[in-house]
């Protein structure tokens, strides 16, 4: 390859474009710029998939261009709502063919938890990037398989941790990292809501992988890690069940858990399907505290410290998340708090340890 061609490729300009008249050259460059939009297919057109699709209408760097669904009527509905061409529509039998579709960059899985791993492996094998909803998988072993498969295929694996881009959250994290709260030695995370319909997949162990911990407790697990900026070295946990009919064997209703960190910091958290409006983070340091309530809901998030309220404009979490994920995948941007498969895996390792601690009553050492 000639030096000139290498230079032009690096500059993002094709030799063909250079040989075209000026206007065509411009439009070729424009096309290349337009290509810097992340083209997304959503898999699983349920409640959260719909929320993401609506939020993406306001994205600058990400665009909904395709769907994967087992329900033909939903596909036609989404086609007309979001202008999705038939060639970008798949079902669960056909979506491996996405490998031959140059117009889709990434598949965003908003399906029940147990489907994340098998579908991730198929998406990666098709050479497309993957975004998985939380929890990334049912356990750490599955998570490791996903990370390895995406690495092997050379595709990104990101997890839909929308709070990692939320402005008030990021301000508390900045303060903590800057030492403005002093040495942060205690974190409390409370995550819960009263779950309705007993027949839903969230209460089915095969599909959910557990109960409240997999669904909502993960926010406290993940929040502990980004608020303290450390990885836990031990876990203890206790379970309570008031309704064994609704919460069957292997489906946790309420779990309290504690974590210890290398600095000596400790966290005390609650995950429950039995209490409403439970969504609070509290971080205390030697110089002061930061508190957030609600801390992980769709917002507006409320946060305050010893200095008073933290004021930031409310943003639709999923809009910012998808624009930022586009920058990560297309420009190699490094987020303040990671959202990659390794990050998803770290939470799964802790959740495995929490379940083990519940079962054995023992303190579980990590790492
Ligand atoms: P949902 O039940 O509303 O939607 C799930 C979709 O998957 C449905 O369209 C359903 O038809 C489809 N599906 C495909 N195969 C299925 C099967 N075998 N069984 C059942 N459904 C099947 O659920 P949801 O609330 O949209 O949750 C989907 C995922 O998104 C979960 O992993 C959940 O944890 C996650 N989620 C994340 C957030 C967040 O804030 N990040 C919020 C809600 C849900």
UniProtKB/TrEMBL annotation:
Coiled coil: none annotated. The keyword tRNA-binding does not apply. It comes from Algoriphagus jejuensis. Residues 171-290 form the GFO/IDH/MocA-like oxidoreductase domain. Belongs to the Gfo/Idh/MocA family. Keywords: Oxidoreductase. Residues 38-161 form the Gfo/Idh/MocA-like oxidoreductase N-terminal domain. It comes from the Bacteria. InterPro entries: Gfo/Idh/MocA-like_OxRdtase_N, Gfo/Idh/MocA_domain, GFO_IDH_MocA-like_dom, Glc-Fru_OxRdtase_bac, NAD(P)-bd_dom_sf. This is Gfo/Idh/MocA family oxidoreductase.
């Amino acid at each position: 390859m000639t030096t000139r061609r290498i230079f032009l490729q690096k500059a993002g300009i094709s030799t063909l474009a250079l040989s075209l008249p000026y206007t065509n050259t411009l439009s070729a460059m424009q096309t290349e710029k337009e290509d810097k939009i992340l083209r997304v297919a959503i898999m699983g057109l349920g409640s959260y998939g719909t929320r993401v699709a609506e939020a993406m209408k306001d994205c600058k760097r990400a665009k909904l261009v395709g769907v994967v669904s087992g329900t033909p009527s939903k596909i036609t509905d989404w086609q007309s709502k979001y202008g999705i061409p038939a060639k970008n529509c798949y079902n669960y039998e056909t979506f491996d063919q996405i490998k031959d579709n140059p117009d889709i960059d990434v598949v965003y899985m908003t399906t029940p938890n147990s489907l994340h791993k098998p579908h991730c492996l198929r998406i990666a094998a098709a050479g497309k990037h993957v975004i998985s909803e939380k929890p990334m998988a049912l356990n750490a072993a599955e998570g490791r398989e996903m990370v390895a498969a995406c690495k092997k295929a050379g595709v990104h694996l990101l997890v839909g941790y929308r709070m990692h881009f939320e402005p008030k959250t990021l301000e508390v994290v900045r303060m903590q990292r800057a030492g403005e709260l002093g040495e942060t030695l205690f974190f409390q995370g409370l995550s819960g809501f009263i779950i309705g319909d007993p027949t839903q997949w969230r209460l089915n162990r095969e599909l959910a992988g557990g109960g409240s911990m997999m669904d909502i407790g993960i926010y406290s697990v993940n929040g502990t890690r980004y608020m303290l900026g450390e990885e836990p070295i031990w876990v203890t946990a206790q379970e309570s069940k008031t309704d064994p009919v609704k919460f069957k064997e292997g489906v946790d209703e309420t779990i309290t858990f504690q974590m210890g960190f290398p600095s000596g910091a400790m966290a005390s958290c609650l995950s429950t399907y039995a209490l409403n409006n439970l969504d609070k983070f509290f971080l205390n340091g030697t110089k002061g505290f930061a508190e957030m309530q609600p801390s992980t809901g769709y917002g507006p998030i409320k946060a305050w410290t010893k200095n008073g309220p933290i004021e930031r404009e409310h943003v639709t979490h999923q809009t910012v998340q998808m624009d930022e994920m586009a920058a990560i995948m297309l420009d190699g941007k490094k987020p303040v708090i990671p959202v990659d498969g390794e990050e998803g895996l770290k939470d799964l390792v802790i959740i495995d340890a929490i379940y083990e601690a519940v079962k054995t009553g023992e303190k579980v050492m990590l790492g």
